[in-house]
């Protein structure tokens, strides 16, 4: 992708009126630029992995490095656009219902209405990892895994809370939430261990017996002697 694309897009956004429509357009443009940057990086990586020698190998390596820099700038632009979109969301906006955001009238509006939107629009575009037979695993039908649903939902809600902290909120989110949860989800022995990028397998629960009657007293009941 041309290195001038992102600065040109940023300039166009700066000249646009500061409206919710303009902010949404900026976020969409940032996502498109990121998708293009990722495609360019995939092409450049494939070229760099070819059995090239001499100046061809050097040129391929430089093209890959440039593609990675462009991708990194695109990721930052998505983050900035997401923050601007969050700032543009006003509490109690008539166009946003509590059913869509899950926020009460006295609380801040959520930027993403569901954990799925958060996953597709922010988390996965930023969290770029190599997924193959030797490096991690992922399931396209992640929503069929109860653990994945819970972890992605937790990541979303933590992000919505910590994004309001303009100082260390994102650092805390990455360190205490994103990296630990994603490390589990992408682990080859994690919830997607039986799946791959092309195939889903319904997960099996761990075997577990039921305790004898009365083994666990009800809350408020007689405790163990």
List the helices and strands and how they pair.
Blueprint: H1 5-15, H2 20-48, H3 54-88, H4 98-101, H5 115-126, H6 146-162, H7 169-186
Features:
flat; mainly alpha; 225 residues
Describe the structure.
There is one protein chain. This protein has 225 residues and is an all-alpha fold. It has seven helices and no strands. The chain has helices at 5-15, 20-48, 54-88, 98-101, 115-126, 146-162, 169-186. The protein is flat and about 80 Å long. It starts with a helix and ends in a 39-residue tail after the last helix.
Encode the helix/strand succession as letters. Answer: HHHHHHH
User: SS-based structural class?
Assistant: mainly alpha
For the termini, the CA-CA separation is: 70 Å
- Beta-strand percent range: under 5%
**How large, in whole angstroms, is the Cα Rg?**
22 Å
Number of helices: 7
Q: Which ranges are low-confidence, i.e. pLDDT below 50, for 5 or more consecutive residues?
A: 1-18, 90-101
In helices, the fraction of residues equals 55-70%
Main sheet specs: none
Choose one word for the global shape.
flat
Overall pLDDT, averaged? 78
Strand elements, count: 0
């Amino acid at each position: 992708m041309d290195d001038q694309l992102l600065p040109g897009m940023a300039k166009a956004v700066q000249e646009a009126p500061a409206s919710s429509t303009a902010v949404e357009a900026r976020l969409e443009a940032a996502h498109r630029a990121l998708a293009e940057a990722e495609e360019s990086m995939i092409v450049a990586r494939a070229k760099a992995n070819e059995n090239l020698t001499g100046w061809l190998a050097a040129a391929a390596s430089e093209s890959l490095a440039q593609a990675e820099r462009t991708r990194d700038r695109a990721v930052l632009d998505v983050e900035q656009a997401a923050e601007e979109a969050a700032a543009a969301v006003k509490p109690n906006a008539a166009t946003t219902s509590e059913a869509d955001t899950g926020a009460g009238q006295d609380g801040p509006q959520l930027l993403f209405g569901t954990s799925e939107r958060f996953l597709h629009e922010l988390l996965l575009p930023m969290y770029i990892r190599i997924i193959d037979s030797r490096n991690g695993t992922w399931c396209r039908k992640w929503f069929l895994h109860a653990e994945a649903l819970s972890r992605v939902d937790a990541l979303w809600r933590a992000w919505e809370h910590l994004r309001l902290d303009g100082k260390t909120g994102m650092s805390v989110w990455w360190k205490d939430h994103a990296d630990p949860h994603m490390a589990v989800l992408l682990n080859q022995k994690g919830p997607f261990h039986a799946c791959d990028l092309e195939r889903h397998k319904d997960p099996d629960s761990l075997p577990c017996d039921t305790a004898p009657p009365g083994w666990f007293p009800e809350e408020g009941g007689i405790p163990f002697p």
